[in-house]
Amino acid sequence: MENNLKRIKDSSLHSLVVGADEAASWIQDGMTLGLSGFTRAGDAKAVPFALVERGKNEKFKVNIFTGASLGSDLDKLLSEAGIINKRLPFQADATMRKNINDANHLFVDQHLSHTAEMIRSGVLPTIDFAIVEAVSITADGMIIPTTSVGNSLTFVSQAKNIIVEINMEHSELLEGLHDLYEPAEQGKRKPIPLTKVEDRIGTIGIPFDIAKVKGIVFTNHKDSPSAIVPPDQETQEMANHLMDFLREEVKAGRLTNKLAPLQAGIGSVANAVLHGMIDSEFEDLQVYSEVLQDSVFELMDAGKVNFASACSITLSAEKMEQVYGNLENYRDQLVIRPQEITNHPEIIRRLGLIAINTALEFDIYGNVNSTHVSGTKMMNGIGGSGDFARNSRIAIFVTKSIAKGGNISSVVPFVSHVDHTEHDVDVVVTEQGYADLRGLAPRERAELIIENCVHPMYKEQLRNYYKEALTRGGQTPHVLEKAFSFHTSLAENGTMLDKVNSIA
Amino acid sequence: MENNLKRIKDSSLHSLVVGADEAASWIQDGMTLGLSGFTRAGDAKAVPFALVERGKNEKFKVNIFTGASLGSDLDKLLSEAGIINKRLPFQADATMRKNINDANHLFVDQHLSHTAEMIRSGVLPTIDFAIVEAVSITADGMIIPTTSVGNSLTFVSQAKNIIVEINMEHSELLEGLHDLYEPAEQGKRKPIPLTKVEDRIGTIGIPFDIAKVKGIVFTNHKDSPSAIVPPDQETQEMANHLMDFLREEVKAGRLTNKLAPLQAGIGSVANAVLHGMIDSEFEDLQVYSEVLQDSVFELMDAGKVNFASACSITLSAEKMEQVYGNLENYRDQLVIRPQEITNHPEIIRRLGLIAINTALEFDIYGNVNSTHVSGTKMMNGIGGSGDFARNSRIAIFVTKSIAKGGNISSVVPFVSHVDHTEHDVDVVVTEQGYADLRGLAPRERAELIIENCVHPMYKEQLRNYYKEALTRGGQTPHVLEKAFSFHTSLAENGTMLDKVNSIA
């Protein structure tokens, strides 16, 4: 304990140390909790675990707001415990997904840059308890976050009560890595002074009102390692196509080999695509992203990336050991910010990001579905993909052209849910090729997408749809009664493939 | 002519004065033209007219890029003349619309804040000729724009050649009304220093390279008056519902009676809704919009609006006379900026706008179609609605609940084209009522929208759809094979109304 208390440098706070069970007991039915945590990194762990335990013997429900998805199976446990009323703004857990789709609890799928703004302006319910993981509390009254910042700054500034979880597993070397900046009220705010990826514009910790700190809990749970799948041949092909596109940009004089600051979405595909740049001619790269995955550190190690900014670091077990065991090697090239700043339209447009995100499916006109399987079942959520796609310099979406052994085509006549409209999607990439949609009218886009991106199994079928659509005319030709035929066929026959094609 | 030349204060340019026919003769097949003009205001007129004449005897095609829609029937004439290859980023003319939908020429429907960025970064073809209307050319080398700025600043800075049309119909009192600011290259730019609606951050005219000026043409064509329909009972009801929503915001302490800077889309409905605020308790209002229509000046006259910023002023004939005849009364309360600045995500988020735009249709989950009739036929284009909706503090969409005497319901199970996703739409308003969707999960949204916004004729039908969808489950329940049943029924039977309901 002696050792633990050293992490609370303001000794007047030592008396607030409590057990996780006691802290969890303060939470009442109907409350709203703001938990730290962003894609399995830096989540509050001990108090939520204790809350799950309480849920086994007691009936209550709370709203769970976070940065993004939680690690340590917390989303699974909270959801199973039946204690969630409303969850936002993102999740990525199979059990929670099922409970959302079975309407066992509510889920609001939000742009990740919006949550802080909506809390501050009073549109979302007031946060009753901010529960945030920390490395330490400084003598001058700041909470030093751990491996993510997420929405913690706003949770702490807006909550009625604060519980800090000091996680002894995290090295104190994390102090100094963060940059905390919160915009003032809308209409009264100044420009956000960040003009370069590496700029520091705020404080190294989260300032807080001592009177609001209700308790401090010690824990020693590690972050969950990421569950990314290693690159495969198809992701390497996608990376190659993406790099071909970027080479064309360089050739046209629109970019140099330094490209522009890169953003890459969470997940195996985006990770693999970034990984694919290791042996490329691109150099002196910068990353301005939401989450740093293994690939960014591989690119740093290879001397390809010279600086990376994000609101979370989510690594495989192996990479965790390497990075956190050698933090001194990376700390001059890293900054962790609030998700409101990493995903802020002002900064994204100013820096002119190249945004690479994963699509679930896209259609022949370039609309993208990132969230809903067959238009109805939630996968994970839009995350930051909309924040980035909408305001970036080049919005790129990647996906394998088929799934489920070819029974699903990722390119369809009409996406069954739209998360990114044709107006916001610049380039689509599959392992088949890429389509650069910028400046093209819908009919030009359709031809390019079918030609370049569709799997050979589905080319004829999409061509036939488009041919029939053309007989109907219009700026964006469709046969509305067949627009979802790929999806209804999947539901009825287990495949999107036409019978004619299946037999052939 | 003596009098005309006084408008060119740098006399070294006097020798460049030519007739419109001569200027039009310089334009070659395959060129790209950047024309001034935004929603019928400030368009280059004489040279495009001459080009249309040339098209009668000669075969050539050009790309026509503008601020937004053109007045003086120019979009109609250019389209009819068959001399357009590609048109962007917006139009609003019936003949051009037909030609777009018949695929007689291409149309790229762009966010209005994107065009300048795409030209500057070399993604769109280089502008061969910028043809911009002006009040005058100053002695220190600036073009003073007229009633709109649109994309003229970027057209002039990026074009290979410049033609200036000095329109003697416009008063020289317009000088000083404009504020021209162009961001530097992405990655090298500073924050845009605008923090208040009334801030001036640039020059009063468009700086230009004298060597690029190929000709100066004099004209005296007036701007086309706007074709807005006067407010009716239903638009007044919509305004009342919108004000009820705003009153709730004031009651909740999220806004004061001064609200937040207002943006209102082009068109009769948005105009009528703003007009409806005249007799309200809201006061000291500010407008940060794209286009100022009659209603903004009515609100100024009523002492309700103290400042208005836009990239264009589009008025009825009567209002034109009043405003331009008494410009001295308004000039301290007005500024005209480039559309890149009026629609910039950085500024929209910073100021925290309340954005009011018109929907063609919206669905039970809050997705909005602003552009495509029955998903295929282009109406006008997305305009700035996406720029505003995506980054505003409150994104509001308004539409009458039915059209075509009730054969069309503006609320449908699934919009036939998505311009604004469920993530970006905060409030929907019809004459039936409003639905505040912020912080709601899809199932909560569907119930509220059906209850509050749908016309009684269609309530049962939408409830039945939703009930059946619920049996399928999911975060966003749908019956995909019936998702477009309203639209296919309209195509087949001339009405979206179910037979059962029609008989009843």
Describe the structure.
Two copies of one chain form a homodimer. With 504 residues, chain A is α/β, with parallel strands linked by helices. Helix content of chain A is 31%, strand content 19%. In chain A, α4 runs parallel beside α5 and α8 (233-251) crosses α9 (268-275). The radius of gyration of chain A is 23 Å and the shape is globular. In chain A, 61% of the residues are buried. At the A-B interface, β4, α6, α14, β21 and α15 of A face β4, α6, α14, β21 and α15 of B. Chains A, B: One of its GO terms (molecular function) is hydrolase activity. Chains A, B: It comes from Psychrobacillus mangrovi. Chains A, B: Belongs to the acetyl-CoA hydrolase/transferase family. Chains A, B: This is Acetyl-CoA hydrolase/transferase family protein.
Properties at a glance:
homodimer; 504 residues; alpha/beta; 7-stranded parallel sheet; 5-stranded mixed sheet; 19 helices; 19% strand; globular; NagB/RpiA_transferase-like (chains A, B); AcetylCoA_hyd_C (chains A, B)
